[in-house]
């Protein structure tokens, strides 16, 4: 397993991490992701640790806290061997203080997460969404205090726009507060929006990407493609509306290229899709999920080898879309690109 610094921090994280969204599954979304109980979770954690996957990601909204509880039980007795990443900020109830990133909510959310996880500190804590109703100074100062208290080690964000991140970093810089070092983002061969603004920002400001849904919300498993209907047992029948949309023609084009490269490399379609992400700029770790041991072993096969330059170019070309303004001149015109060359093709 390869380990990389998380952004500009000194924390080393594995290039593959495990997403515990399948743990304790309940509700209209997470019950379709998986319903892994504590015994099954322990076995999946065993396999991860044997392979060098030491980072486990969860959130308070995953199955109403059950994911954190199952993860906490699964790592009991080996806390020092793992890194825990969790998130808060999305609504967990109907009360006026059951959502957002106010000082009151953040302190309560961290305390509740620590209890569910059975630990006294969280390695990486991320805001799950930007809270426009709370001043960034209140948010960042509260996180800084929680770091100073030893309850959080590193902090980051997820699902923020570029200006929202920069506003928060500016406040931290001005007051000497702890800076964000992680950005948990959606990024895949059928969803490359991260490259427009957030990737250059991450490079410039030292934020390492923790990539969620690397298989395009389950579309890059090899089961979908041109001329293939959605399998009857696919979770996409129930969950597609929750995830990022994908244009059908883009999906078919990407899957065609993935299948060609997978045959050349002697790998599976998911392994190729994940390996492509590992080689992208600013990516610190790719979060893989698994409902069973077979899926986990297959996803772990995405490391220990590298796509060739020609294979990467084939995948880049198949997944390319027209860049939005103001980015397209820098990708179409040599004069613009000379001034500000894109980080990724």
Explained architecture:
By secondary structure, the chain is an alpha/beta fold. The protein has a single domain (3-339), classed as NADP-dependent oxidoreductase domain (TIM Barrel, Alpha-Beta Barrel), CATH 3.20.20.100. Helix content is 41%, strand content 14%. The protein has 14 helices and 10 strands. It has helices at residues 27-33, 38-51, 66-74, 103-117, 136-148, 162-175, 198-205, 236-239, 248-265, 269-278, 293-300, 309-319, 328-332, 334-339, and strands spanning 3-5, 12-14, 16-19, 55-57, 83-88, 122-127, 152-158, 182-186, 208-212, 283-288. An 8-stranded parallel β-barrel has the order 3-4-5-6-7-8-9-10, surrounded by 5 helices. Helix 2 (38-51) crosses helix 3, helix 2 packs parallel to helix 11 and helix 3 packs across helix 4 (103-117). The protein is globular. 42% of the residues are buried. The mean pLDDT is 93.
Q: Numbering strands along the chain, what is their spatial order in the largest sheet?
A: 3-4-5-6-7-8-9-10
Strand content: 5-15%
- Per CATH, the superfamily is NADP-dependent oxidoreductase domain
Task: Return the domain count.
Answer: 1
Number of strands: 10
| Number of helical stretches of at least 4 residues | 14
Task: Tell me the structural class.
Answer: alpha/beta
Indicate the percent of residues in helices: 40-55%
Gross geometry: globular
Radius of gyration: 20 Å
Could you say what the CATH architecture is?
Answer: Alpha-Beta Barrel
Averaged pLDDT, please? 93
What is the CATH topology descriptor? Answer: TIM Barrel
The helix/strand series, from N terminus to C terminus, equals: EEEHHEHEHEHEHEHEHHHEHHHH
CATH class: Alpha Beta
Distance between termini? 26 Å
Low-confidence runs (pLDDT<50, min 5 residues)? none
Largest sheet: 8 strands, parallel, barrel
């Amino acid at each position: 397993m390869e380990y990389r610094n998380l952004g500009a921090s000194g924390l080393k994280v594995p290039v593959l991490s495990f997403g515990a969204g399948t743990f304790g599954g309940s509700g209209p979304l997470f019950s379709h992701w998986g319903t892994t109980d504590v015994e099954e979770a322990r076995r999946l954690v065993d396999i991860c640790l044997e392979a060098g996957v030491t980072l486990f990601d969860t959130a308070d909204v995953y199955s109403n806290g059950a994911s954190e509880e199952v993860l906490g039980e699964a790592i009991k007795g080996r806390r020092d061997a793992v890194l825990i990443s969790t998130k808060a900020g999305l609504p967990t109830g109907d009360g006026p203080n059951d959502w957002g990133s106010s000082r009151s909510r953040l302190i309560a959310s961290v305390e509740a997460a620590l209890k569910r996880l059975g630990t006294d500190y969280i390695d990486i804590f991320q805001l799950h969404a930007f809270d426009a109703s709370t001043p960034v100074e209140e948010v960042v100062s509260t996180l800084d205090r929680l770091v100073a208290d030893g309850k959080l080690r590193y902090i980051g964000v997820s699902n923020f726009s570029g200006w929202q991140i920069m506003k928060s970093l500016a406040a931290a810089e001005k007051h000497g507060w702890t800076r964000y070092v992680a950005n948990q983002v959606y990024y895949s061969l059928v969803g490359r929006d991260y490259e427009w603004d957030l990737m250059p920002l991450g490079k410039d400001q030292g934020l390492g990407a923790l990539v969620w849904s690397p298989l395009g919300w389950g579309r890059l498993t090899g089961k979908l493609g041109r001329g293939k209907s959605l399998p009857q047992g696919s979770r996409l029948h129930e969950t597609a509306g929750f995830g990022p949309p994908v244009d059908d023609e883009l999906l078919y084009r990407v899957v065609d290229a993935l299948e060609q490269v997978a045959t050349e490399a002697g790998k599976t379609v998911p392994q190729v899709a994940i390996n492509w992400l590992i080689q992208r700029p600013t990516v610190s770790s790719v979060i893989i999920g698994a409902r069973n041991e077979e899926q986990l072993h297959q996803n772990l096969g995405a490391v220990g080898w590298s796509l060739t330059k020609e294979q990467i170019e084939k995948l880049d070309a198949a997944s390319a879309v027209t860049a939005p303004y103001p980015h397209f001149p820098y990708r179409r015109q040599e004069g613009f690109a000379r001034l500000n060359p894109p980080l990724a093709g």
